[in-house]
Backbone:
């Protein structure tokens, strides 16, 4: 694939806060640690505290990888698992929910960014090791956010009533959605390969977390990607002291609320708001909020409650029953991993900025925040159509109406802008006004009013001329609609809507290779990839 790079600001699709972060805006500096560049990593590595229990981390990861067939675990993955035992090995982490069939394209883009950043850091710091990690958001309970995907403009949904952590959801009810997805993939080119991946993932593995691990590993094992499910009692035990302190003292609520006030004053749109207690209580099919009411810690929508002493005992004996919410999950991640970078989308980068003071409070290193690579995959046919019309692919980031109007203005053989005629009319009315004022000074305003009405009439006539010329070029303008629909399905960036499936059917593993070859994590450019 050929790559073209443009600034994120040029896309019009990213928040001012993210753009300002990349520009090193002074007002945002209090809300993160080191800059997202090689010098920032150099500084962080000099200050990094190795506090995670590597032996426990390796124990958990090895147990989880035993759930995969031995032949599916690559040699590079095994090498990275061994390297995690060493104090000079660090992780580069991205995380996401367990979207079925991987969800939108940016799921894939996140992981590629992590893989590439780990490679780039190894080149810059050869005496250290860097391992790419995908953190499965297996404790998330919002099933309706992950139970569907868009592929080829069609929505595939897994319609089932479930509760509790999504990683524990049984896959037995996904068969209808699985068949629909495979049906859209078809039987050509690399469809069989991807069909086998998803069939094995969702039909051979009982739980959604295990199915997701298989599918992601099938796509990325050759790059050594480590996949972690943090829904594990051994890992939660490492986090237990913070769980207890935060629930009882409500530290995160105080710290993050104060930070959010400062961010709002800096003009930042707040992404998440903390609660007084930022943990859920987690059982087999239950993930409900903990609240403090009437001097007891209660689990909403259940009869479960604890005194303070009972709560401390419960955390000590069953730490796995306490699940961090969106503002505490990042802290949990950084406690159990030797992590130096978190890769997320624009909204994630902003909400991590809300958390810096809480990391400082608990004396946990804050990772460098990396905006994931974003991209657009353009078919050869659409690229050729755009070129034949004299359009660049970056032109398509404009609205359809502006794009069409500009194209008509450039390509029409007729004069569609009446500004020249308007100037002549204005000159006539200037003379007419002088003439009328000599006769009766009160006629000046009347003449100006007539002039304004005529200006408005000329403006409307110009719009009619443009509309008429559009009809003359309707076939060409329809091509703009077709290209726009491919690049911005549903009016959004392709990566936020479309699944990777049909691209994989066409390109196979070369799709991933193309992303690996062209995504540059620390350049912070939007990537347009053309077949």
Residues:
């Amino acid at each position: 694939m050929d790559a073209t790079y443009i600034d994120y600001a040029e896309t019009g699709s990213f928040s001012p806060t993210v753009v300002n972060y990349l520009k090193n805006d002074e007002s945002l500096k209090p809300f993160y640690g080191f800059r997202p560049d090689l010098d920032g990593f150099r500084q962080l590595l000099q200050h990094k505290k190795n506090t995670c229990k590597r032996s426990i981390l390796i124990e958990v990861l090895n147990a989880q990888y035993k759930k995969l067939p031995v032949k599916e675990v690559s040699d590079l993955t095994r090498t990275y698992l061994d390297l995690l035992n060493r104090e000079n090995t660090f992780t580069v982490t991205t995380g996401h929910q367990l979207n079925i069939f991987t969800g939108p394209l940016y799921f894939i883009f996140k992981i590629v960014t992590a893989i590439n950043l780990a490679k780039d850091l190894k080149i810059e710091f050869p005496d250290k090791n860097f391992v790419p990690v995908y953190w499965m958001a297996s404790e998330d309970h919002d099933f309706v956010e992950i139970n569907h995907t868009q592929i080829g403009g069609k929505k595939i949904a897994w319609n089932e009533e479930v509760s509790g952590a999504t990683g524990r959801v049984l896959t037995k009810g996904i068969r209808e959605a699985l068949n629909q997805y495979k049906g859209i993939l078809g039987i050509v080119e690399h469809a069989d390969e991807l069909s086998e991946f998803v069939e094995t993932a969702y039909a051979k593995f009982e739980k959604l977390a295990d199915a997701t691990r298989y599918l992601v590993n099938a796509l990325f094992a050759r790059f050594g990607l480590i996949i972690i499910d943090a829904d594990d009692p051994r890992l939660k035990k490492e986090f237990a002291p913070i769980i207890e302190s935060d629930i009882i003292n409500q530290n995160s609520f105080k710290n993050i609320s104060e930070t959010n006030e400062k961010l709002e004053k800096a003009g930042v749109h707040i992404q998440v708001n903390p609660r007084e207690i930022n943990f859920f209580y987690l059982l087999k099919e239950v993930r409900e909020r903990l609240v403090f009411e009437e001097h007891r810690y209660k689990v909403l929508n259940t009869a479960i409650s604890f005194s303070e002493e009972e709560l401390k005992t419960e955390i000590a004996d069953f730490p796995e029953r306490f699940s961090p919410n969106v503002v505490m999950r990042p802290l949990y991640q950084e406690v159990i991993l030797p992590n130096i970078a978190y890769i997320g989308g624009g909204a994630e980068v902003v909400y991590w900025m809300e958390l810096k003071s809480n990391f400082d409070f608990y004396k946990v290193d804050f990772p460098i925040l990396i905006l994931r690579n974003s991209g657009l995959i353009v078919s050869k046919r659409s690229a050729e159509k755009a070129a034949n019309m004299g359009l660049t692919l970056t032109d398509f980031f404009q609205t359809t109406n502006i794009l069409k109007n500009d194209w008509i203005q450039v390509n029409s053989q007729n004069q569609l802008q009446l500004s020249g005629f308007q100037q002549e009319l204005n000159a006539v009315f200037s003379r007419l006004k002088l003439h009328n004022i000599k006769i009766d000074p009160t006629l000046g305003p009347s003449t100006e009013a007539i002039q304004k009405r005529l200006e408005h009439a000329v403006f409307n006539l110009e719009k009619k001329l443009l509309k008429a010329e559009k009809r003359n070029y309707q076939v060409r303008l329809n091509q703009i609609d077709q290209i726009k629909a491919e690049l911005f399905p549903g009016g959004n960036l392709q990566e936020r809507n479309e699944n990777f499936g049909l691209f994989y059917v066409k390109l196979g593993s070369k799709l991933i290779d193309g992303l690996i070859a062209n995504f540059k994590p620390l350049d912070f450019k939007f990537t347009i990839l053309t077949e």
Summary: DSSP finds 23 helices and 15 strands in the chain. The chain has a mean pLDDT of 92.
